[in-house]
Amino acid sequence: MSAGPEEALLPRGTSYGALVGLVADPLMRRRAGRPWRIAFAVSGMLTLLLAGCTAWLFLRGIGILGNNTAVVWGFPIANYVWWIGIGNAGTFISAALLLTRQPWRAAINRFAEAMTLFAVGIAGLFPILHLGRPHYALWLTPYPNTQGLWPQWRSALVWDFAAIVSYLTFSLMFFYLGLIPDLATLRDRAQSRAGQVIYGVLALGWRGSARHWHLHDTLYRTLAAMALPLVVSVHSVAAMDFSASLMPGWQETIFPPYFVVGALFSGFGMVVVLAALIRWGLGLQAIITPRHFAVMGKVLLAGSLGMALCYGTEWLSAWQAEDRAEREHLRALFTGPYAPLYFAMLGCNLLVPQLLWSGRLRGSIPAVVGVAVVLNIGMWLERVLIIWNTLSHGYLPSMHGVFSPTLWDWLILAGSLGFFAFLMLGFARLLPAVAMHDMGKLLRRQRSGA
Amino acid sequence: MRPPPWQGPALPLGLCGTAVLGLALLLWPAARPALAAGWLAALLFWLGIALGALALLAIHALTGGRWGTALRPVLAPAAGSLPLFLPLALPLLLSLGVLYPWVAEPELAGHPDVARLYLNAAGFILRTGLALLLWSALAWLLLRLEQGPARQGVAALGLVLHGVAVTLLGFDWVLSLAPHFHSTAFGLSLLVSQLLAALAWAALCRGAGEDAAADLGGLLLAAVLGALYLGFSQYLVIWYGNLPHKAAWYLARGASPWLWLEALSLLLSGLLPLLVLLPGGLRRSPAAQARLAPWLLAGLSLHHAWLVAPAAGPWSLPAAALATLSVGGLWIGLAYRPLAAWLAPAAQERAA
């Protein structure tokens, strides 16, 4: 609930027209540059790779992946949790920063929300990919059928499906509602007939009247207030997939909040990386400033410290547990076959972000982006290790087994990253990557404060 | 800001309550476990307000915002009073043997390593003492330092240490009453309920005034939702797992009269605040907040009794009621008169 000094967030002496031009011109008046074309082509190929791998997976079955009888969830569910974590952050950032009146929100909320939509969509693919019989994914929905069968509502997986679908629908609505005034701006600035018609239809007849703004603000704030519990519920329900089982290391009450903290941590990390790319690619240096990165650096540091507290609590609790399997699990984390990866994960998530205590490093965009990339690798390792460590050392020693990913596992992961990049690149050329009307409000606040 | 309620008779009431408890202890030695559990429930409640105030001051040092400036006159004496809890914790530390089963039977701590290195009387006293000293030092620094990089550094580091200390305190003070039970989210849940308690305390004293009332209402709503979320998610995970040593903790607290205690607590500190705080008009009204706050605090106090009292039997409930009066009386009487006066010039300087 704070409104800090805003002088460094917008260039001095700028006007609303100049701000709109800065954001809209790359879409309407400038052709895509060579780097964008190359990136779009590469990500398009990776998307095709994902489609090809998926087709092969459906034809041959999940035997082509590294999943085995011990580590049944393998890469796909780890990827799912990682992507849904990234998808958690966008709507949360946008809603929480709106409700707490953070002026730096305006520059980052739009592409963060787009990131959410794409990441949640991709996340939703993975559980289906690992089903083995993907055509039965339909059974997760409470559809009317002649056999009178209903999903088992005591299963965390059914709730997870419902949570993801609700979140995706909600995030889409929230994203679109925030976009309407900007779509009207694009409609008014479009030079081609097609642009005028498409943006015009999407703008739903927005005229920017006082009544429109009043209704828009009321609805938008209400949705933002609803978004926060929803965001928390999504990753909590994903955590319940794990903690509802009785496996050592998973049956932990801290899992729901711990997954939420981890999701915001990795999601913020991804926002930092995207902010740097969009700033560079669309020439938005005047709008996305080093101060934005400094503030996001502080959030990353807080996230890392929150993760440290969660890890420490887990270790202490497992060490105190009477259950032999819990203590064995703890020992396996530090000395088992995945121990080097576990130490790498701790380094990425806990040690490297501590650099951000330094104000000088927080002020350096490459440093903050570097930390964000490292922590996203760390968070991916964490998701993978949560699955590998527990499932490799269950209660039955005869069921102990190590997971080795196959080429297909890696290709599907690379394909999903490519697909995400493909969608983000398309977004950056079709819709304003920064909320222009929010920048306008910020400008008015800055002027009235001056 | 209004003075806290019952500030006038607080100190005599606190002293009388403590004397009655002391007398009960002398006349009826068999009631020692119930009296100790009652004292623990009261300590958790009042210390929770002070710790919540400390955490809010630290959060405000990092985030800024007018709510923190407005609430400071209420929060500062609460946080500044933390050293008082060093003597107030003494009765608990002197009753470890009657309250915690692992003192007499170290094998209950689980693995022998745990009993030797961690869950023993010396470790308990050391951790409690260090935590209280840490909080006292943090409060002193946050109240004395001028806003700037040094205070922000203290606040950031302090919040991390606070998270660790509250987690350990929650494990030691509450969960080790049933040493087989572990809930990793308990510390976090305690931390959020402390924030809620401090915000409700600020609402009771009308700390926010008209300016920051909307912010206080929003923060209260968020804290209520957070506390409900963490409480429910712990229950859900344990219900779902249905493992004997974990379920037993809830089964003991699901029997009469404890179930009714928690149901009343949920009504007062969960449902009622949601009903009052969801409509914008009420949420932003300092008068509505002040009327809601005593019920909310009563609900939190009942929740602490629900956590602690089943370990010592139903007689710990009247003991908890009396101890809440005693600890609260001593705390309000000492924190809000001498301490508030001592902190007042510093608070005015900050406001200026």
From TrEMBL, chain A:
Organism the protein comes from: Teichococcus aestuarii
Cellular component terms (Gene Ontology): plasma membrane
InterPro entries for this protein: NrfD-like (IPR005614)
Membrane topology: Multi-pass membrane protein
Family membership noted in the UniProt record: Belongs to the NrfD family.
Ranges annotated as spanning the membrane: 38-59, 79-99, 111-132, 156-179, 219-238, 258-278, 299-318, 338-357, 364-388, 408-431
Domain of life: Bacteria
Localisation per UniProt entry: Cell membrane
Main localisation: membrane
Keywords assigned by UniProt, alphabetized: Cell membrane, Membrane, Transmembrane, Transmembrane helix
Pfam families named in the record: NrfD (PF03916)
Name of the protein in question: Hydrogenase
Coiled coil: none
